[in-house]
Amino acid sequence: MAALLRSARLLKFSPSGLLQIAGSKSTGPPIGRLRLGPYTVGCVRNYAVATEQKEEGSAGVRTKQVQQFDWALAKLDSSVRRTGRITKTLLLRIFHDICRTGYPSGNQALLLLRSCGALLPEMPLQERSELAHHIWEKLQELGAQYDVSHYNALLKVYLQNEFNFSPTDFLAKMEASNIQPNRVTYQRLIAAYCQNGNIEGASTILGFMKSKDLPITDAVFNSLVTGHARAGDIESAKNIFPVMKGAGIEPSPDTYLSLLNAYAEKGDLDSLKQTMEEAESADCSLMDRDIMQVIYTLAKAGHQQHIPEMVERLRHERGYVPDAMNLCLRLITLQLEDTAFYILKTFPTLQSESFSDDSASLGNFFLRHCVNIGMVNSQEKLGIFCKELEESKLHSSPLTFSLSCALDSKMTDIYNQLMKMLKEQDFPIRPHYFWPLLTQHVKDNNTSGVIEVIKGMQDLGVSPDVETVTKYILPVFQNMEAVRQAFQVTLKTNYLCSCKCVLFHLVWVH
């Protein structure tokens, strides 16, 4: 291994060029080097743009592809610049629009694939990979032509999503498609092996690179730090630093970050502190986004007790809030809501004594994702979050906002639980508060769904009025007798009596 690395030649290159979309001329602003979290930085740095390559087909089709590519790029670019992330809804909308044309271009495919990784912090890792595979297969069916850049983009997504795959099978598929791997391909395959602590596999790929006279960059060394650490050999991980220097490559902040993450996985706080000091001494200043990555690793590995020490090192640099928001989203996705809430409370707006518009809604993203991720078994925790957000002036009306999120996401269980919390706060609950839930069930003619909502009303002691029954209950039943039978089976005696009174009134009127 050391011999292979010492023979490496340093390649001077621009990191943004690694994933650049091939073309001759830029058609839009690059999404390069934005203030994103450490988990998105690598992806966004490489979101460079150029015009469509020449493809077979009519000039009209090519023109439409270019226009649609520009539109999709503008939407994704805007989202990344504003929030440092992309929503699943936006990505699927663009994907479906591209599919409807029936003529996906290579650039469009590349853009969509690159969006399936770290830029989707609100999606679980497995779902991201499944989405990437779905996009890959669907666009291929529609005639998209893939080259090495597409395979490299898929590899990047695999790495960001920690997807377990066979590098040898991946190479075999490339060979079957008559696609030749390049330096970036080998570099990412090494990272994949190292992600699983497979140093032998990484060494094999390094041998390929040497035989092809391909240069070894600092990214490979960074991967090897991770690989040795995950193989249980932290000393070899540390020894990568002198090997790098021997090859004429100075360790970068990312190299130190790889070692920091290794210590974070082990919960070794003393080594974390020492490595941070060494990085500062080597003029490799760690930014907030780097420390956030260490915090994420600590939380994921179950070492939350060390997180306050890392939080104290955050300097609240420019762009801190969007970076921290994305960290919170990733943690919530992993069901680490408590750690995410701890990070949320570090937001600088907390230091403001006034209840500004910004601080009054800063907790929106947190509550929305807690609801969307389905905290069905943690409603009490959600209630605690809401209370603390209001007391901390991070949100003016967290419970009612969470209620609207549950409604938008059709989370009936959470909606009912939030209703109970509101009732406990002496908030009057009216029958029409349940109409939005009933509307979709009526549209779908979903009898069981309507009954579930009525049971939720029953639990809250809210009886349906005449309008609720006529507009949102009766339409899903064939006749009045079916209504009576359904109510008889599912409702309690006292509640049933009040419902029967309404039904009797309707029968009498008609």
UniProtKB/TrEMBL annotation:
| Annotated InterPro entries | LRP130, PPR_rpt, PROP1-like_PPR_dom, TPR-like_helical_dom_sf
Residues of the PROP1-like PPR domain: 209-317
Which keywords label this protein? Repeat
Q: Which GO terms describe its cellular component?
A: mitochondrion; nucleus
State whether keyword Secreted applies.
no
Q: Please, which domain of life does this record's source organism belong to?
A: Eukaryota
Q: Which Pfam families match?
A: PPR_long (PF17177)
Q: Does the keyword Repeat apply?
A: yes
In the record for this protein, the PPR repeats are positioned at: 182-216, 217-251
A biological process (GO) of this protein is: regulation of mitochondrial translation
Q: Name one GO molecular function term.
A: mRNA 3'-UTR binding
Q: Which PANTHER family match?
A: LEUCINE-RICH PPR MOTIF-CONTAINING PROTEIN, MITOCHONDRIAL
Report the protein name in the record: Leucine rich pentatricopeptide repeat containing
Which species? Labrus bergylta (ballan wrasse)
For this protein's source organism, the top of the classification is: Eukaryota, Metazoa, Chordata, Craniata, Vertebrata
